[in-house]
Fold:
Amino acid sequence: MTLLEYADAEMLALDLANVMAGALGAALRQQPRATLIVPGGTTPGPVFDDLCAVDLDWDRVDVILSDERWVPEADAASNAALVRARLLVDKAAAARFLPYHRAGQTPEQALPELEAQVAPLLPAAVALLGMGADMHTASLFPRGDALRLALDAQAPALVAMRAPGQAQPRVTLSAQALVASLSLHVVITGDDKRAALERAQGLPPQEAPVAAILKDATVHWAA
Ligand SMILES: O=C1O[C@H](COP(=O)(O)O)[C@@H](O)[C@H](O)[C@H]1O
Structure:
């Protein structure tokens, strides 16, 4: 794991967006299309604001979520809604986005179709992940009902997850799908998450799921 510390969240967002754009550009010089994995939640918005303005062949980029809360996009909890509002605008509006939520279906019902669409897009050229103070990343939650499967090296790309304290069911990329990414970044802010990151490094992934993806990751932190 590499830890990069920034003077403030604005510097972090700018630098991280540039690093991600560089890695996406490099991938697009080698292959016809490139996949970008992005998180939801409260942290990545400023990174999206900078990344969406970068000159890239966005029409050759496939954007998928690290995970989704099983709610329609009109719901404030929707990760897809965040991505549409903050990333898929400006130059990045040309990217292709694959949302996960399917109205009228449970995650389990939707999974076969989603797996068939997502698996061919992996490994991703670039993945950006968030982390909660409880040491979850994507929707790999401590005590999640499918955590064992999601941490398994043979796991499918996508796993349905329910976890104590989480209002909605989730779908999440498995740890294997995340760590296969060619360029893997984690964005965190605040002292509580910094302390959680340090704690996670001494714990097994069953207790601290983020530990499963840290080995080759670059963690970007600002207070
Ligand atoms: O529930 C989620 O949480 C994590 C972390 O979110 P944050 O609000 O603490 O930044 C996020 O990475 C994930 O995509 C989301 O579904």
Summary: The mean pLDDT is 98.
